[in-house]
Design brief:
Layout: E1 2-12, E2 16-19, E3 21-24, E4 30-36, E5 43-52, E6 55-61, H1 66-70, E7 77-89, E8 94-112, E9 124-137, E10 140-146, E11 151-154, E12 157-158, H2 161-166
Antiparallel strand pairs: 1-2, 1-7, 3-6, 4-5, 6-9, 7-8, 8-9, 9-10, 10-11, 11-12
Amino acid sequence: MDQSIINFKVYEDSVEYVGMAQATLPDLTALTQSISGAGIAGNVEAVILGHFDAMTLGLNFRTVTAQSVKLSEPRRHTIDLRVAQQDEDVVAGEVVVRAVKHIFVVIPKSDKGGTVAPASPSNGSGEYAVRYWATYIDGKKVREIDPLNFKCEINGVDYLAPVRTALGM
């Protein structure tokens, strides 16, 4: 039974600790087409296989740091969110810590400086256009979304493999 995130860290390029942050993960919103016509009573929404609306990663920082400012450089950044997640094995009666890792390739699209006030955090934030998102649980890849390379792999199934084949890729 999943319970809580114990803690997490943000890294750039898998090595440089970015700092204390709060992350808002992207929404995966499938592209759709409305279908209507003879034989259909109204409209039906068709979900387009493996195609998603633009994704955004949000990072909120307590204070301004050299590393958080570096993320506003107008280039691609590889961000790792490494999460220690607490689950409970109800059969064994044990608390289990799972390693969850999200890897993103992003480009900055906004940088909010936050506020400056005595004895308080600045709460600056950034929003980043997501080009790639992979999720690993205990080292096993469970999701890979890569729109630019026609990849949509979820739980070991590559849903866009037949599309790549049909396109001669």
